[in-house]
């Protein structure tokens, strides 16, 4: 059997269909989002312990207020939603509800965070004693999750920028390709493959870096530079595409 599989390479050639590719891409996207969220929470916890201990829980609360302020001040309209501020608020509220209220986590935190009555003993009093040292960290994780959901909505609102930049880059790249084709220019498969492989990582880095930032930053300072780099990689890919199909 091993000899047959070695002799016939088609037995080892397993190709993914359209649905499996979509599911694989979706799973990869969810994985990167979860990693970004976990990294954001861990960074906030480390910051509360070492970098901004005097701010404590207020740091994540101030981040949330700043992110909403950016949105209300500079996002008047979007192709995704006619009211970006309301869209983001609704998305953040629903995310908070699904993760913490629907799962009864907030009720549990309220239950174990309530001081026991004098002389009360039992499970709740022990849980209360264990919860007090980490109470601020738990609440900070919940607030960071809200910041994460706000930033996720902002990135969704900013995706038309990537689409617009990409369309311009494709047109520019194809024009340069035709000029190279009719002018007898040299063809470089190395540059083509390098540019092609760098496009998707740039898009992923935009989401990961912005979602995991441990401080508030206007989304334009993240979205526009990465959208420009992404468009540049698309333009180079289109311009260095082989002359003849």
Helix content: over 70%
Tell me the overall shape. elongated
The major sheet is characterized as: none
**Cα-based radius of gyration, to the nearest Å:** 25 Å
Give the class from helix and strand content and strand pairing: mainly alpha
Q: How many beta-strand runs?
A: 0
Written as H for each helix and E for each strand, in order along the chain, the element string is: HHHHHHHHH
Nearest-integer average pLDDT: 80
Task: Give the strand content.
Answer: under 5%
In DSSP terms, counting alpha (H) and pi (I) runs of 4 or more, how many helices?
9
What is the rounded distance between the termini? 39 Å
- Domains counted in the coordinates: how many? 1
Structural features, described:
It contains nine helices and no strands. It has one domain (30-239). By secondary structure, it is an all-alpha fold. The chain has helices at residues 2-7, 18-51, 57-74, 84-101, 105-113, 123-131, 135-183, 189-212, 220-239. It is 76% helix and 0% strand. The protein is elongated. The model is unreliable at 1-14 (pLDDT under 50). Helix 3 crosses helix 7 (135-183) and helix 8 (189-212) runs antiparallel to helix 9.
Concise synopsis of the structure shown:
The chain has nine helices and no strands. It has 245 residues and is mostly helical.
Task: List the main descriptive attributes of the protein structure presented here.
single chain, mainly alpha, 0% strand, 245 residues, disordered N terminus
């Amino acid at each position: 059997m091993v000899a047959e599989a070695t002799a016939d390479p088609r037995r080892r050639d397993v190709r993914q269909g359209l649905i499996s590719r979509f599911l694989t891409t979706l799973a990869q996207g969810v994985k990167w989002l979860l990693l970004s969220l976990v990294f954001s929470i861990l960074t906030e916890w480390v910051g509360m312990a070492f970098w901004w201990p005097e701010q404590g829980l207020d740091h994540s609360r101030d981040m949330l207020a700043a992110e909403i302020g950016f949105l209300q001040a500079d996002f008047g309209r979007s192709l995704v939603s006619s009211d970006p501020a309301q869209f983001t608020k609704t998305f953040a509220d629903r995310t908070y509800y699904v993760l913490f209220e629907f799962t009864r986590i907030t009720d549990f935190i309220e239950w174990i965070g309530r001081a026991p009555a004098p002389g009360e003993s039992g499970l709740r009093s022990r849980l209360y004693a264990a919860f007090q040292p980490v109470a601020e960290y738990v609440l900070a994780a919940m607030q960071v999750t809200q910041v994460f959901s706000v930033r996720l909505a902002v990135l969704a609102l900013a995706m038309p920028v990537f689409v617009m930049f990409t369309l311009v880059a494709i047109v520019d790249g194809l024009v340069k390709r035709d000029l190279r084709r009719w002018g007898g220019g040299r063809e470089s498969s190395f540059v083509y493959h390098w540019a092609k492989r760098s496009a998707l990582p740039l898009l992923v880095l935009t989401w990961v870096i912005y979602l995991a930032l441990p401080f508030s930053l206007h989304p334009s300072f993240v979205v526009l530079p990465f959208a420009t780099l992404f468009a540049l990689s698309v333009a180079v890919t289109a311009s260095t595409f082989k002359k003849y199909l």
